[in-house]
Amino acid sequence: MPDTKAKVLVVDDEPLVRTTMSLVLGEMGYCVRSADNGFSALREIRQEMPDILLTDLNMPGMSGFELLSVVHRRFPAVHKIAMSGAFFGSEVPSGASADAFYQKGTGVNALLHILGTMPEIKQRAPQPSSAPAPLWIHRNGHGSAPETCVTISCPECLRSFPQALDDSDGPVRETDCIHCSSSIQYAIVQPEDRMTA
Ligand SMILES: [Zn+2]
Question: How far is the CA of 153 from the centre of ligand 1 (A)?
């Protein structure tokens, strides 16, 4: 076991699973937090990066499949374990981008074994915070009045939401995703030359 306690984030919509996992893993020396769905999990990850993400696959809102794919792209350093009672065996269910799979109900020892197979948690150097490139949004130029609203697709949770435009803003604007509250920088592309009849 590493000197520093590995940080585990448990994601499950069932309170009992969260409580049990937190107790058991806490007892084993892991530093455990929990979240009840994909969106709150992303908020937790943004607050503090866990070493290991242990997530249920079937959850309302954002499923574990979606959460794993977002974490895979955005937080590649996090080790990912999928868990479910609806899949059997030790193979990661297809479509889940996880490093390992824990079949729910197979016992604490099975889970601890899987956690033990995670590569040694390295002391992570603080990652250079390169500002992400802004999203480029096409303003709909059709019609006489300029559109005052654009649709933004969140790069973190992949959800879309409408965003009102304020023309006094600079070229690169910033907003928070209404779903996962991640901060998104975006820039408006002015419409190409209007079509002439
Ligand atoms: Zn989002």
Answer: 8
